[in-house]
Design brief:
The protein is of the alpha+beta class and 636 residues long. The protein is built from 15 helices and 28 strands. Helix content is 21%, strand content 25%. The strands form five sheets. Strands 2-3-5-4-8-9-10-11-12-13 form a ten-stranded mixed sheet, with helices on both faces. Strands 15, 16, 17, 20, 24, 27 and 28 form a seven-stranded antiparallel sheet that branches. Strands 18, 21, 22, 23 and 26 form a five-stranded antiparallel sheet that branches.
Length: 636
């Protein structure tokens, strides 16, 4: 897929809206009264057969509710200088009263959507039917809310969310209070998940968060580098890398969608800039109509140079959970999709490990889907796939019930709601055919380092040899073309899932001859369940004297020779020029995958990818093999 073709695709506003899900969700009326219709991070699992996980029971939501709509004025911005109004809906269940106050839930939406989108309405009705007061709102820059798009920044969106709690929840006698104030939980996914942990760090009224398909460090998500910086024990402290490999396709799509909001009657960014009286913002509004200028400058810098300057890094850090995790002490449930190339499993795992290190109660679920047109499996019901669901449907699904039980446990004190510390969807296990598909979820007590893993050694020019086998010292070389083109194809970001529109799911990944080195294992004698984050230690060098850029990925190779790139995942790596020559430790993108008996695993290192900003200077890259060059796959 060429860059020109991609830009032709994103020229359609209707397709841009699909960024938030798999289709264009229809607005849903909210005025409805209804009833409940180390070297590797891997799992520590019990010995023997794969663990069963029938740990979710159906729960019927029986409460009715009414809704109240209101535009709420807030003051936001670094100095409180921006005055806007946010569009809100308050769901009030029939069990909430002065005598029986109920906990509240705060929720916003995915990028480009509003409070009336399917993901918000389905979730809000489900929680209201289970007796929660639910406050939903449209984030700044979208829909009927004012202002510009600010990426869930602590300087803007977090300040606004706190004021919504002040105005709409704190004064209500039918909402539960204690000595800390109103009792609030948060829930949301993608863009709607990005601000939850910064909010929890800043507002002690937030008691728990259910965080879906979102980022840990937005610098990693949009400008990733999977190089492990020396001294990083977890290998997932992504902010330690100063530069990454710009995720060009995904970021371009979001940049375009944000800047088209005023043309689609979303937000009031140009008017807000005029109201601030800032001549620089006013003068730049035509070229940057949906964001404040620093965000547009950040995109332009990355898009033209591939490098992030210090100001851009500081700006994006203000919108990253990683910046505030040291101040998060409330229980957190993380839900992340296995097929997500925007916010991958490494994002959630980085948050999980940091909270676990600090003894904060935390759980994590690796569900089946993710951004880009991947919908929920039967009995799963990830709220953020663009599907409007009834309360009755949500009452019988794994992810909605896990979220409900988590909230009940921490907001209402109901026992048993924490569930397993770690659960992961297994596409190799058959669904029973009705009810929540928890039988497809393996469980483990933790995500840990180096407990159970298999370390292969790179051998000769193309082999991975198993432990106990003698590797052959050798090397493999590949080139980076001048200009970084032509490039390997792994996906067309946001349009490769089976339910995306248009869907390019039938276009398989492809490599460019001469631009890769590949290393393949012997066939597995029995099924090998790999669950976790693979890693590699590489002795790799190059000739052009600049930063070394390459991509690492894992394939499943069938007995026929057919190869499948696991979940179309790639791990971009950028080694600073002054570190080239030293052994490089990397993390690949995490996954849960069964290699069937007779299949092999293949590690591919390549120089280019169409989704990303490739190195533009011609280069020859060499990988030395033999002892000291390894690939570690979670599982044994």
């Amino acid at each position: 897929m060429s860059v020109a073709r991609l830009r032709h695709i994103i020229g359609s506003l209707g397709l841009l809206v699909a960024l938030a899900g798999t289709s264009v969700p229809s607005p849903v009326s909210s005025a409805v009264l209804a009833t409940g219709a180390p070297p590797v991070v891997e799992v520590a699992a019990p010995h023997g057969a794969a663990p069963r996980s029938d740990h979710v029971t159906i729960a019927d939501g029986t409460h009715r509710w009414r809704t109240v709509e209101r535009l709420v004025p807030v003051r936001t911005g670094p100095r409180g200088e921006v005055r806007i109004s946010l569009d809100t809906t308050l769901y009030l269940p029939d069990n909430a009263s002065r005598r029986a106050p109920q906990p509240a839930i705060l929720m916003t939406h995915g990028f480009g959507l509003t409070k009336d989108s399917a993901e918000v309405v389905s979730t809000a009705r489900f929680l209201a039917a289970h007796g929660y007061v639910v406050l939903t709102y449209t984030s700044s820059g979208f829909g009927d809310s004012g202002g510009c798009v600010t990426l869930q920044s602590t300087d803007y969106d977090v300040k606004s969310a706190r004021q919504l709690i002040d105005t709409l929840l704190e004064p209500r006698a039918d909402v539960l209070h204690d000595a800390r104030g109103v009792v609030v939980g948060t829930i949301g996914g993608s863009y709607g998940g990005g601000g939850q942990l910064p909010l929890a760090a800043k507002d002690r009224r937030v008691r728990t968060s259910v965080v879906g398909r979102t980022w840990n460090d937005l610098r990693y998500s949009l400008d990733p580098n999977n190089r492990v910086v020396p001294g990083d024990r977890s290998g997932l402290q992504h902010g330690r890398n100063l530069q990454g490999v710009f995720k060009r396709q995904w970021t371009t799509l979001f940049y375009a969608l944000g800047n088209t909001q005023p043309a689609m009657d979303g937000g009031s960014c140009p008017e807000t800039k005029v109201a601030t009286g800032d001549p620089v913002e006013i003068g730049g509004a035509a070229a940057c109509p949906g964001y404040y200028l620093p965000l547009c400058r950040t995109f332009t810098t990355l898009d033209t140079t591939g490098d992030a300057d210090a100001a851009s890094r500081r700006l994006i850090a203000r919108a990253s959970a990683a910046t505030y995790l040291a101040d998060v002490d409330v229980p957190v449930l993380l839900v992340q999709g296995q097929s997500d190339t925007l916010f991958n499993l490494n994002d959630a795992t980085a948050t999980f490990l940091e909270l676990r290190r600090r003894d904060v109660p935390v759980g994590m679920i690796w569900n089946s889907g993710g951004h880009g047109g991947y919908v929920s499996q039967p009995g799963e019901c990830e709220a953020y796939d663009g599907t409007l669901r009834t309360v009755r449907e949500m009452d019988r699904c794994y992810l909605s019930l896990r979220s409900l039980r988590w909230l009940d446990h921490w907001l209402r004190g109901k026992p048993g709601g924490r569930g397993p510390a770690f659960a992961y969807y297994r596409d190799w296990v058959r669904y029973a055919g009705s009810g929540p598909n928890d039988e497809q979820y393996g469980v483990a007590r933790s995500v840990q380092g180096a407990r159970r893993s298999t370390t292969f050694t790179l051998s000769g020019s193309s082999r991975l040899v198993a432990p106990g086998r003698t590797p052959v010292a050798g090397s493999a070389t590949f080139v980076n073309p001048e200009g970084g083109q032509p490039a390997a194809y792994t996906e067309t970001s946001n349009f490769t899932g089976p339910a995306s529109s248009p869907s390019l799911a039938d276009v398989p990944p492809s490599e460019v001859p001469g631009q890769l080195a590949s290393f393949t294992s012997a066939p597995f004698a029995r099924p090998f369940d790999a669950v976790g984050i693979p890693s590699a230690r590489l002795r790799i060098s190059h000739t052009n004297g600049q930063d070394l850029v390459f991509f690492a990925k894992a394939y499943d190779v069938a007995p026929s020779g057919a190869s499948t790139l696991i979940h179309r995942l790639i791990a971009p790596v950028r080694v600073p020029a002054n570190a080239v020559g030293d052994p490089v430790r990397i993390r690949l993108a995490g996954f849960a995958h069964r290699f069937r008996a007779g299949h092999r695993v293949r590690l591919v290192l390549c120089s280019t990818d169409q989704t990303s900003y490739n190195a533009t200077t011609a280069d020859v890259i060499e990988v030395r093999t033999g002892r000291g060059s390894t690939f570690t796959l979670p599982g044994a």
